[in-house]
Amino acid sequence: MSFGLGFWAAAGGVAVATDYELISTTLLGSTTASVTFDVSTLTSYKHLQLRTAARSNRASTEDALFVRFNGDTAGNYSSHWMEGRGSSVTSGAQTNGTGIIIDIVTAASSTANVFSASVADILDGFATTKNKTVRSLCGTSIPIVSLQSGAWRNTNSVTSLTIYAGNGSLVSGSRFSLYGIKG
Each residue of 103-125: pLDDT tens digit? Predict the structure, then answer.
């Protein structure tokens, strides 16, 4: 018997617990601008999943967390989001960005030592016939609950992914875990 796993199952896919394999975890011991995973040897997986618990040092209550692929810093990314902040709901989009928004993280003016969590699925990252898509779900103590989706308008196979804060750096204690999802 198989069972659906959260976000993956909610999107119509069915995965079993053994379909997810932990590839690597990075726990920051100091503040850093970005975290990069080399995924060039992971082509046996159909999809990747990035799980984060992150915080920015931006002088604000929040910051955006982005992912970009293969070191591409050109305006080849689109992002869309819908977020709930208490009783209000907003949505938005960004075109021609330099990365895909995957989280709204707590920042320096938020309650100390509180990190935001997200789960981002990188779909068909190794396919060479379609653009890459990402969907993510995040939550913070600000309080914000947010759904994001985005695209890297490129058909190249993903060889690396870089996670970075939009207006600050990632602080010590931030954790990034990369999983492979079998086809």
Answer: 999 999 999 999 999 999 999 99
